[in-house]
Amino acid sequence: MKLDAKIPEGPLAEKWSKHKFNLKLVNPANKRKYTVLVVGTGLAGASAAASLAELGYNVKTFCFQDSPRRAHSIAAQGGINAAKNYRNDGDSVYRLFYDTIKGGDYRSREGNVYRLAEVSVNIIDQCVAQGVPFAREYGGLLDNRSFGGAQVSRTFYARGQTGQQLLLGAYSALNRQIHEGKVKSYNRHEMLDVVVVDGKAQGIVTRDLITGEIETHAGHAVLLCTGGYGNVFYLSTNAMGCNVTAAWKAHKRGAYFANPCFTQIHPTCIPVTGDHQSKLTLMSESLRNDGRVWAPKTQEIAEKLRRGEIKSSEIKEEDRDYFLERKYPAFGNLVPRDVASRNAKEAVDNGLGVGSSGKAVFLDFADAIARLGEDTVRAKYGNLFDMYYQITDENPYKQPMRIYPAVHYTMGGLWVDYNLQTTVSGLYCLGEANFSDHGANRLGASALMQGLADGYFVIPYTVGDYLATIGPKAIDESHPAFAETKQAVIGRINKLLSLKGTRTVDDYHRELGHIMWEYCGMARTEEGLTKAKGLIRELREDFWKNAIVPGTNNEFNQSLEKAGRVADFLELGELMVDDALQRKESCGGHFRLESQTEEGEALRDDENFAYVAAWEYKADGAPEELHKEELVYENVKLTQRSYK
Amino acid sequence: MSGHMNLTLKVWRQKSPQDKGGFVTYKADGISEDMSFLEMLDVVNEGLIKKGDDPIHFDHDCREGICGMCSLYINGRPHGPKRAVTTCQLHMRSFKDGETITIEPWRAAAFPVIKDLSTNRAAFERIQQAGGYVSVNTGGVPDANEIPIPKVIADEAFNSATCIQCGACVAACKNSSAMLFVSAKVSQLALLPQGQQERYRRVQAMVAQMDAEGFGNCTNTGACEAECPKEISLTNIARMNREYFTAKFFKEEEIH
Prior knowledge:
The complex is a heterodimer. By secondary structure, chain A is α/β, with parallel strands linked by helices. Chain A has 18 helices and 23 strands. In chain A, a hairpin with a 5-residue loop joins strand 7 (200-208) and strand 8.
């Protein structure tokens, strides 16, 4: 199958307007004859479900949590970008577009990213109208800040919990539609397969997590808004329940998986303390606006520090290496996430790490406190400092924070065209679950923007075109594909429940995470990746022989839920490694050691790798087929990123 | 490096909503002070699974104190002994070596136990659905800066909006009242200009649903505020009462 991204012709700034005009509309009286299934209720899912219901479609939503408001969008801290130019500091739709393309290291589509920047301004209007309490200035207008290396102040925020406030806005819109009877919500339900009839997605199979009942739901279109797959690394900043299962099942039913190896490692996370650790906690990178990143200059000092023989405050100024300021004088501590993360790892790999594990560098606020006073620092970052204190029992007002990078976001995901449709007709993918807008590296405050752009302002138009094309005829749930897909799900559950070995599912997950982090994390080599592929295969085989999955299907069984998700991660992990192997260039969030400049910076290879890698599933155990979507740049000139 | 401790856990086990349930005692040995409370339970569960037993079921997700999924009544207090933290942000250094820790689910008629420590909080969903929103559709809204809001009002609305819907207020209350939760949403939208059009309809609809779900009344004990992990203030309840009385006396509207 040839990949057609369906980017509209014409000048960049007119593509979306023209396309909207060309899309078919559904007659208002016919909308109520359609049902749309929305899986996942984070920013993308909740906003899509509410918007579609407002238009008159019948919507069913599904989430594995006990409330749509608990989806992991809730945890985003920093903010949301929008090209409002309220600050008169030179921002524009084109500049946001340009920054996003460049930040993504030229591995995303011009058309998609321009549209994202274009609708960003509508998102802020929408959220404010819902009552989202953004930060304001004394004059009563909205406040903005600069974020994640941007040269303009375009980030809107709600203290340190922008994600929660935006999600509560979308959740409230969703609740209104539930009240109106246009949305039926299925909480504590997990999607376990897609029903495909004659090449079209027409339903899903779900498990009621409380009763274990396996249900089928029919719909004219299916929207997957199921988030990212960062938990393949076991330790990540994702919630414990975040998983790839819905996207992976769709992949096995024909949806291509794009750029799976593009994962983002966030630089300012609280370091690991021991093997018991279940997740990592991120602190907003706004901290880098005032914190200075450093490590000891010599291994000898670092060792003394790790053994607790000296304190950080006893290290003289000349024995400290503020490595980001030294290497990137123009951007200093505000370099993009990938650069900050890679440099922290490099310091640790060179034996300069701090903390008892040695896997951390310092983020120091002493200068900021001296310059601004403790009260000002508290007003800006108080909640983050409290969180750090709570977790580490160390007071960041008195001693520098210890930070280390952690997996945070996945740019890869299901391949979608400009309409957000996957390679399966009627199957759409929104938000972090798709691959489309962030290329090889996502800029700060762009994830919330993309989730809401997809849900509020893109899908209501594009799905309508598809629905108008297929017509409002009721979906025939007696088609054998429904019963067959349900039977396949039951078979898989029974297979999982038959595992009565000796090793826990968490233990497999932990080992998979180690393999992924070690060989498919920030720095990768052909040799390491090849080794990882073998290790993952062995681990997967062992899982299906020796794992323990207690309990039965007909009950609330958290072990069974976890086992299904880890089994899918064990398959995804290998595809990520395959993808990383074929991409023999360094770009964005990942660094191929074989591809670097003389100064040791990431070296992109536009001649050979300016494409989207979209993988087609063939059969269990068989290699997937790689399809390439060439990326065409008509407006932006590809340059090597430099933050010097 | 931090120390390790040995603990005794008395955990509420209940197979299903119908099951009577009861306490079961477990040993948790070699627990690091750096572990979170839920990581300590993970360790206990790993041991149970290896023995072929059913692990202790509890709700949790983000483990960074914001999703509101985690609960647990620990030594008689929702979210444990520390102020202003959720259970997932509670660390074992808050406990002593050799201590016995009692762990129960939220106790409230409106939050029936699903299994072990996990409860059904769907009643909160229905209250939100009754009126916790501003009725605007996607698109067609004014420019964001056309709705100026004084900073003090915006900040106060924000404080109310930080509720994570965990249910600790209900669990803490001797009457199982949901007033703190409901009033936080009512306050947020009553304070903001965007919420004015439906101000009185909203408070009546949400209170009516709250009563229908079987939550108790407020007798101003203040346990909810003391135990709220997000420090939602009792002032919200006072504001909701004012809103409600004004609505009932002067602005009664038919609610649907």
